[in-house]
Amino acid sequence: MRTLLLALGLALMTACAAEVKLMEVPTVSDKDLAAIDDQDWQERLGPERYRVLREQGTERPFANAYWDEKTPGVYHCAGCGSALFASADKFDSGTGWPSYTKPAADEAVGETVDRNHGMVRTEVHCARCGGHLGHMFPDGPAPTGTRYCINSASLVLQPEAAADKPSDSADAPAE
């Protein structure tokens, strides 16, 4: 029975991570963003993304969509589509969440003091829509020394355009 429950739990976590990965980068105008109410957020985001972005939830480590993602591209806010982090600044922190040394632009994320769970941390959120992203810690690698520990559910990866990549056929010898 215990094995069955563990298998079901793993299957559910994998399905949630896959669901998070499939979302397209949203496009929301500033006018539309101002008009989104709580019910609209729930409909737009779905249960897991809503829990993370709007209720300051946290995903399980090592069971989320982007913790080990290596695809080059830009990570956007799943709420409003703002560019938040670049894959070039992503690193393996060993924590089980996607981690970055810096945001795509200084103005992309905002910071708030988080005193929940008996500790003081720096919460980071999307500067445009206010969606909860994760936390920032002063234990990252050089050159910044900062680790942005971010929930996959708050992100959508936009891979580099195929046109920007060299074609495999270009390397093939001519016949």
| Lateral strand order in the biggest sheet | 3-4-8-7-6-5
Given the structure, what is the number of helices? 4
* SS strand fraction: 15-25%
CATH architecture: Beta Complex
Low-confidence runs: 4-19, 167-175
- The geometry reads as globular
CA gyration radius, whole angstroms: 18 Å
Mean pLDDT: 84
Number of domains: 1
CATH superfamily: Peptide methionine sulfoxide reductase
- Relative helix content: 25-40%
CATH topology-level name: Metal Binding Protein, Guanine Nucleotide Exchange Factor, Chain A
SSE string: HHHEEEEEEEEEH
Description:
It is a single chain. The protein is of the alpha+beta class and 175 residues long. The protein has a single domain, classed as Peptide methionine sulfoxide reductase (Metal Binding Protein, Guanine Nucleotide Exchange Factor, Chain A), CATH 2.170.150.20. Helices cover 27% and strands 23% of the residues. The protein has 4 helices and 9 strands. The strands form 2 sheets. A 6-stranded antiparallel sheet has the order 3-4-8-7-6-5. A hairpin with a 5-residue loop joins β1 and β2. The chain is globular. The C terminus is likely disordered.
Layout of strands and helices, then pairs:
Layout lengths: L1 H20 L8 H6 L2 H18 L17 E5 L5 E4 L3 E2 L7 E2 L8 E6 L6 E6 L5 E6 L9 E4 L4 E5 L8 H4 L4
Antiparallel strand pairs: 1-2, 1-9, 3-4, 4-8, 5-6, 6-7, 7-8
Quick description:
The protein is α+β, with helices and mostly antiparallel strands and 175 residues long. Helices cover 27% and strands 23% of the residues.
